[in-house]
Amino acid sequence: MSKVSEQERIQALELKLKQLKVQKQRKEARARTVESRRTSREEMRRKFLVGAVVLAKVDDGSLDKKTLNGWLASAITRTEDRALFGLDVEA
User: Fold this and answer.
1) Mean pLDDT of 35-52
2) Alpha-carbon distance values, 59 to 50, 52, 72, 85, 88 (Å)
3) Is residue 91 over pLDDT 50?
4) How far apart are CA 83 and CA 81, in angstroms?
5) Predicted model pTM
6) Residue 29: in which H helix or E strand, if any?
């Protein structure tokens, strides 16, 4: 085998290696994105379910509405969110 063909073969293999590395990086990035979305969906579902349970407890009298409003008043700061729950809008 001549040195030119060996060099061409090495270059071709190096190019293929670079392409495979790029493919691997893309696959890993996709997997991270999928995992992040799954985690975010699970977190949103947990929040939704906890909220539903708390509201059900307020409705059936197991939890005092004043207690809930106290929790909300200390935790919610955005004007739009405070208005949604009927809380005083702080200036």
Assistant:
1) 97
2) 14, 10, 16, 15, 22
3) no
4) 5
5) 0.65
6) helix 3-59
What's the whole-number mean pLDDT along residues 54-80?
Answer: 94
Closest CA to 80 of 89, 91, 71: 89
Rounded-to-integer distance, Cα 48 and Cα 55, Å: 11
The string of DSSP codes covering 32-87 is: HHHHHHHHHHHHHHHHHHHHHHHHHHHHTTSS-HHHHHHHHHHH---HHHHHHTTP
Spatial contact of 58 and 68, defined as CB atoms under 8 Å apart? yes
DSSP summary character for residue 91: -
Tokens 């909300």, located at residue? 72
Is the pLDDT at 4 greater than 80, yes or no? no
Question: Of all helices (H) and strands (E), which one includes residue 14?
Answer: helix 3-59
Find where tokens 């975010």 sit: 40
As given in the structure block, the two tokens for residue 47 are 């929040």
